[in-house]
Amino acid sequence: MTRVIAVANQKGGAGKSTVTVNLAVALGQAGRSTLVVDIDPQFDSTAMFGLSPESATGTIADVFLGESEAGEALMTSVTENVDLLVGDGRMADVELTLVSQVRREEFLAEALREVQGDYDLVLIDCPPNLGLLTVNGFLAADEVLVPISMVDRNAYKGAATLLSTLQTLRRRRVSVETLGLLRNNVDERRNTYQTLNEALPALDAPLLDAQIPMRAGFHDATTEGIPLVVRKPDGRAAQAFRELAAEIQARSATHTTTLAEAA
Ligand SMILES: Nc1ncnc2c1ncn2[C@@H]1O[C@H](COP(=O)(O)OP(=O)(O)OP(=O)(O)O)[C@@H](O)[C@H]1O
Ligand SMILES: [Mg+2]
């Protein structure tokens, strides 16, 4: 069964796009067919694959504007087993026009319905706010993956705000689980890392075992438009993403078993 995962954190620079793209590569290399959906008007995950809205025959904005079906707009095989619904700067305008529309929060969920069954996993790269596009991401998703920058002193407060937003949605009967908090930008020697690492369990959300190390190579990979997991497959960062991919797949198995036992 397809799992749809929103990668979200309203804090800018937490690593949402980096994690979306490199996790997709790792999942694809492990043989899992994966769709990346770039809903952020900054379209960073699209750029990280070396692509641009201009280079695509269709984008996520065309889908939101009703000019294209998701299946027609997506770009296939951007890397092994990975398709991409290309991002678009016009999504900033789309968000404004959505405000006045009926079922404005369910637009993405409806648009993805016809294509998501073709994939094992769908990863949605959300913008750095809790606005209407991110809420569309939450309603389209089964689970939310929350990257946390372990060099950001305010990361704890940011994650707490995000988790409480998810709680509010659940109270409104939106079924979206917290897949986990993912420690990104990890340098274990730093005080900020140690302080955050001690504080995070108090958030009462699953803390993933895999941790993504701080590596300058992520920035270079973005400039070149080649994800680091592709560019340096033998590096520690690529290894961390393979561990993350395996952990996420194992969590799904545990979850399914628990449900089966409960039935
Ligand atoms: N583990 C890491 N090590 C070093 N640099 C990183 C790491 N993760 C992300 N970065 C860098 O931090 C910056 C922000 O990362 P990224 O764009 O993935 O974050 P984001 O949460 O998607 O940002 P935004 O909120 O703007 O969408 C980028 O320059 C990226 O290369
Ligand atoms: Mg981003």
Automatic annotation (TrEMBL):
Signal peptide interval: none
Domain AAA: 3-172
Protein name as catalogued: Chromosome partitioning protein ParA family ATPase
UniProt similarity note: Belongs to the ParA family.
Organism: Patulibacter medicamentivorans
Function of the molecule: May play a role in septum formation.
Any single Pfam family the record assigns to this protein: AAA_31
InterPro entries the UniProt entry points to: AAA_dom, DNA_Partitioning_ATPase, P-loop_NTPase
